[in-house]
Amino acid sequence: MKLVLNQQGQLGDQRVLGYNLVDEPWLTARPVGGGPPVELGIAEALARAHEFEGLVVEFSTQFPALLRQILLPVVAHATGAPADLRDKGERLTRKDGFTEAESNDLRTYLDAHRAKFDLFDPLAPFAQVAGLRTAKDETKGSAALVATAASGNNVPLFASRTDADPLDLTPAQAAHWLVHTHCWDTAAIKTGVVGDDQVKAGKTTGNPTGPLGQLGVIVPTGRTLYETLLLNLPVTPPTVLGVPQWLHGPHGPSWKTRAAEGLLDLWTWQARRIRLVPHQDDTGRPRVARVVISAGDRLAPLPEQEPHTAWTFTAPAKKSATARPERRPRRHTQGKAAWRGLDALLAPIRQSSGGTFETSVLLDEVNALQESGRLPDDYPLQVETFGMVYGTQSAVVEDVIHDAIALPLLALHQDSEAQQLLLDVAEQAELLARAVNNLSADLRRAAGADPIPWDKGQRPGDLLLHIFDPLARRLLAGVRDAGGNEEKLHRGRLAWEQVAHRHVWDAANRLLLAAPATTFGGRTLEQPGRAGKAQTYRLGTAGANFRRQVDEILPRRTDAVRQATAARAAETGPALDPAPGADFDY
Q1: Secondary structure (H, E, C), 331-350
Q2: What are phi and psi of 423, to 5 degrees?
Q3: What does the alpha-carbon distance between residue 5 and residue 14 come to, in Å, rounded to a whole number?
Q4: How far apart are CA 428 and CA 15, in angstroms?
Q5: Which contiguous run of DSSP H or E holds residue 54?
Q6: How, if at all, do strands 298-299 and 257-258 pair?
Q7: How far apart are CA 219 and CA 438, in angstroms?
Q8: pLDDT digits (tens, 9 = 90+) for 261-316
Q9: Nearest-CA neighbor of 582 among 505, 494, 514, 521?
């Protein structure tokens, strides 16, 4: 018999069943080749990892949380992280998953530590603090764990429930959101608990977001769950591997700011002190409707070996002869597809108009595996990106970022033809969108209106990037299929420019056709900050400038048209450029 709180937060003596994550079917996986999803525990998920494509989650950002808080640490601690790239390559390319010896190590490990994975253990519940309580024995609704549910100030747009509505979670759902909270929780004020000597006025302030909330998370994925696990295990010496949170001993209510003691400590970081309050429903099954959440350990500094993010280098705050650029995790941009950030994904360190970037440790290792011949050129690597957009002092969740793209291995090679092609395409897409926005701005000025502000409303270039999205993804797959064939890559580059030219002129013609008659005469405006300087904006000038910009952005398509025109002129006499958009008389 256990003393627990019921749904109303009152003490009772209901019998609560144990729920051990090693055996209970709380994970959901997609079988290779299709078929209905399979529910299983940690032990079976790892034993059969080569039989599944990947995990199925309720909310996208739960996936990296499950990897880092549970699956990767179990594998790394039981079987060891790869000792070097050769070891990683050999393990990664096994079709049958873990060897018999590794499977035995996993079973032995999980048997030895099975008690550590009991979600409702009275003395050491998994990833929680037993007996965590406030001075008044207050609890919160389980919605406080759920990023998509209304709770306190965190009220998602068009939420279907209010904070007052009970949210009864199954143990599986509670486990998913428990690890998600450790990784992604907001930075809101946390409830003060008994035993925390840093509580002031019954609360704790200054809490940072969960560790993953401070990153632009990058997760390479393979053809199976097993390959995904190996792709996300960086080469790590045993001396710096450390131990996961379940072996640190029972956590108490107090917390501190500290550095991570190894990779496994970083992955299983307890960013919050949490207690799930279970009860039984009418059928006798365990449920979680109440929780206690308080401040947890604060990570400082972020380890440079953090494997699941790319990095950006910024100028030091204090300039001096010895000052070095600051290396910070690169965050994903809200509303920006992953292929538009290829300059930061491709290894190893790169400078571009947007700054200096360094790719993630894991993608750097994939590049090294391919260069050494341990991964084939056509390996179907996928890269998934995750991020959380917080608002109002990071106390609420405003949006979630998730994308997945095919990433050709050859594109990871420094200065390779495949890499340059993809970087050029990403840059051309941005420049074409900017050209359309400039055309829109010039036409609006010619009509007597102000341009659309860059941070308000939807500009026409945004729609163009949306149209480019499926084309860019198709190109990524085509570059992978082309391998190192330069002729195929050249044809793909030219085909991209031809299709991009057609779409950009479709967008431009919509703007030109909608322009009022007054834009023919145009308007003359003084230039801001340039006394006595004026510029005339009219339809013809705007169109001519746009044509010039597009021709410069797409040089291969421009050259191909000129060559074709010259060839026809040699045979039949001079002819007009039949390029899309040329038939518009402005």
Answers
A1: CCCCCCCHHHHHHHHCCCEE
A2: -65, -40
A3: 9
A4: 63
A5: strand 52-56
A6: parallel
A7: 36
A8: 999 999 999 999 999 999 998 888 999 999 999 999 999 999 988 999 999 988 77
A9: 505
The residue type found at 346 is L
Give the integer Cα–Cα distance in Å for 280 and 444: 64
What is the fold of 338-572? Topoisomerase I; Chain A, domain 4 (1.10.132)
- Structure tokens that stand for 292 in this block: 């206690």
Q: Read off the tokens for 76.
A: 């790394």
CB atoms within 10 A of CB 500: 23
Q: Is 394 left (phi over 0), alpha (psi -120 to 50) or beta?
A: left
**Count of positions (residues) in the chain:** 586
C-beta of residue 236 within 8 angstroms of C-beta of residue 140:
no
Place of tokens 């941009």: 333
SS3 280: strand
Structure tokens at 425: 């395409």
Q: Which two tokens stand for residue 293?
A: 């959440």
Q: What residue ranges do the domains of the chain occupy?
A: 4-212+235-299, 338-572
**Count of Cβ atoms closer than 10 Å to residue 325 Cβ:** 12
How far is the C-alpha of 160 from the C-alpha of 261, rounded, in Å? 42
* pLDDT tens per residue, range 354-403: 678 889 999 999 999 999 999 999 999 999 999 999 998 999 899 999 99
* Amino acid (1-letter code) at residue 523: R
